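Let's study a protein:

===
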Amino acid sequence: MATQLTTHPAARAVDRYRPLSVALTALAAAMATASLVGPLGLDLMRYRTSPTTLNQLLGSDAAALFVMTPLALAAAVLAYRRHPVAPPLATGVAGYALYTYAQVIIGQEYLRLPGTVERFFPLLLAVFLLAEAVLMLAWRALPPSLPAPSTRLRRATGTTLLVAAGFLTFGLHLPSILTAWTDPTALTEYASSPTPFWMVKLMDLGIVVPAAVAVGVGVLRRAGWAQRMAYPLLIWLTCLAVSVTSMAVVMLADGDPDASPVLAIGFGVVTVALAGLTVAACRSLSVRRVPVSSALCYCAPDIPRELLTPHALAGPARTNDLPVTRPVVRL
């Protein structure tokens, strides 16, 4: 007769948060490094772009260093503590990093304008890969079902997402596209750096706007999939709005010919609205939990109820940190 100890899969589920915490910490360090070696800090990584696009990249670097890096570190701490807000927060930060650093890598005027950005490709690639890892780990840790928002919060979320999609389409991108078609030399941003111009248009109109419209309509119609997607999407859009607002402020401060006070104010209003909804959604996510008989489910909501029997809960105080083992008897 042989006895073998096996670990129940549900007990291993709690370990999803620890790799997520490590990946978030690494992503925060990589983003901070990329910002500090650029024009915002040591000026070792010089972008191959025009002065007007450089102002946008400076604003993006400032947002990454002063907002996104602390946000990623906060998500790492929450993931280490297995807080329910950690997965959607990490998903939003990772989505921001993928969106932003894809543009930084691809949207350069290589061989046409001077710079040294290609020498830092390994660093930018590391940020991109870490963002992919965080996105995968955060999505795996995200519970299958999330608390339904209140009627007021649901309507505000759906409406704000639709308004944001309309603002991006008709207030920001459509006018500049029409100008690029009819009089391209009148738009300094397009005439000097056409590559990032069209890349931003592609990603915003091809990814951000469709996602905001689909989830906004789904939330208003009480669709379950939209409710689950709304939490990380709100955080992602809030991160993007902070970055774009930072770009607009830097352009205004530098006297950029493409700067617009109206767009800067518009971005600021959208950022405040999205931030308010994000805080309200995260508060409902952390407070409105299904009551259980043990804190074990709070730490790992996917543990089956049969493990919450009094016999299973007996033992050391930190049960959720220990693997659940069952003897297997073989004759």
